[in-house]
Specification:
Family: Belongs to the IL-6 superfamily.
Oligomer: single chain
Number of helices: 6
Distance between the termini: 39 Å
Protein name: Cardiotrophin-like cytokine factor 1
Main location: secreted
Strand content: 5-15%
Shape: globular
Keywords: Cytokine, Glycoprotein, Secreted, Signal
GO molecular function: cytokine activity
CATH class: Mainly Alpha
């Protein structure tokens, strides 16, 4: 009857339709995801550093591993990038300026940590330092990714090696340990502040949109 004829016509039409492009739902990775990833990595490094710092300070011995040890910062430690900037001044910087400062600081801190990795006296400590250096290298690359996704240029040239030619070496073992102490202390402060920076930044950047894309 008529119904069977209509059904037959529809089947024939469907069989002869050209292949349709596939309709895929894909999430575009943008600045929002890059910032979230960097924030998560910063918090992970904070957690990782707490264990590493305790192990390393115990390796240095007293007074460096004593909870109330809080020495004044020596002139020698000025080579380590300081995070002790007034918070109101820091927040008054542009996002680009803060990101650039983070990128430069972690690039330099990574150089110093790699030097520690080669000097550590135990295999376990060298392993932990090596793992932390790999994670910190990931943070440097992640910050570069955030800057790129926001359209900011990277700072001109990464920081140089931890001991440039002509730099004085520690005249004794105590001052060398003091350098190591301040390196860990400044790194803890940088990570604490960076986590706050990226938490604020991710609130300013809209979340990623889900788009429909036709693929042939």
């Amino acid at each position: 009857g008529d119904s069977w004829g209509i059904f037959t016509f529809l089947c024939a039409a469907l069989c002869n339709l050209p292949a349709l492009p596939a309709l895929n739902c894909t999430e575009e990775l943008g600045a929002g995801q890059s910032i979230q990833k960097t924030y998560d990595l910063t918090r992970y490094l904070e957690h990782q550093l707490r264990t590493l710092a305790g192990t390393y300070l115990n390796y240095l011995g007293p007074p460096f591993n004593e909870p109330d040890f809080n020495p004044p910062r020596l002139a020698r430690a000025e080579r380590v990038p300081s995070a002790t900037v007034d918070l109101d001044l820091w927040r008054g910087l542009t996002d680009n300026a803060r990101l650039a400062a983070n990128y430069r600081a972690y690039s330099r801190l990574l150089c110093y940590l790699r030097a520690l990795d080669g000097q550590a006296g135990t295999a376990e400590l060298r392993h932990r330092l090596g793992h932390f250096c790999s994670s910190l290298q990931g943070l440097v690359l992640s910050i570069a990714g955030v800057m790129s996704s926001l359209g900011y240029p990277l700072p001109a040239g990464p920081a140089g090696p931890p001991a440039p030619p002509g730099a004085p070496v520690a005249p004794n073992d105590f001052l060398k340990k003091m350098d190591d102490f301040w390196l860990l202390k400044e790194l803890q402060t940088w990570l604490w502040r960076s986590a706050k920076d990226f938490n604020r930044l991710k609130k300013k950047v809209p979340p990623a949109v889900v788009t429909l894309r036709l693929e042939a």
